[in-house]
Specification:
The chain has 2 helices and 9 strands. It is α+β, with helices and mostly antiparallel strands and about 160 residues long. The N and C termini lie far apart (about 95 Å).
Length: about 160
């Protein structure tokens, strides 16, 4: 009797293991495919990018925190898209968040699009004109009255100072 019970227990364990493995294989097959950025040639006037700029702007990378040349910029002017020169942010909306990247609590109307990030947890921000990756937007942190932080890679932008 004991041997039969032991075999039954082993059989049940093996069956449960097989079901678990089959379930995990099916779950993997159902994962959404990562979207690869579509290459477009419709606008040949885009600026030429360095490899480092392409890594962030095209391949949605991130520059190291605290290294961007625009992080500590205090001049008055307009931040523009590095890829297409579209105006994105005004200096008046820039604030210190101490996160390691330039932070803005408002964008120029219609200049930035918000897209759910592939990680499902964040919201990506891209240039509305050319879809260049800028960074991510965070809501509800309380840094400013607008309660919004556009966390932008310096490498994704140029700065055009106001005329004096």
């Amino acid at each position: 009797m004991m041997k039969l019970s032991g075999r039954t227990t082993i059989g049940k364990i093996m069956l449960m293991g097989a079901v678990l493995m089959l379930t995990s294989l099916v779950a993997c097959a159902q994962k959404q495919k990562k979207e690869t950025p579509k290459k477009t040639t419709k606008n040949m006037e885009w600026n030429k990018l360095t490899k480092e700029e392409e890594d962030v702007i095209v391949r949605k990378g991130t520059e190291y925190p605290g290294t961007g040349k625009l992080l500590n910029n205090k001049e008055k002017g307009t931040y523009t898209c590095k890829r297409c020169n579209a105006p994105l942010y005004r200096s008046e909306s820039k604030f210190e968040s101490e996160c390691g990247w330039p932070s803005f609590d408002d964008e120029i109307k219609g200049a930035v699009e918000r897209i759910p990030d592939i990680d499902g947890m964040r919201t990506e921000i891209v240039c509305a004109n050319c879809k260049a990756h800028l960074g991510h937007v965070f809501i509800g942190e309380g840094f400013t009255a607008k309660n919004t932080r556009n966390c932008v890679n310096s490498i994704s932008m140029n700065f055009v100072p106001d005329a004096k």
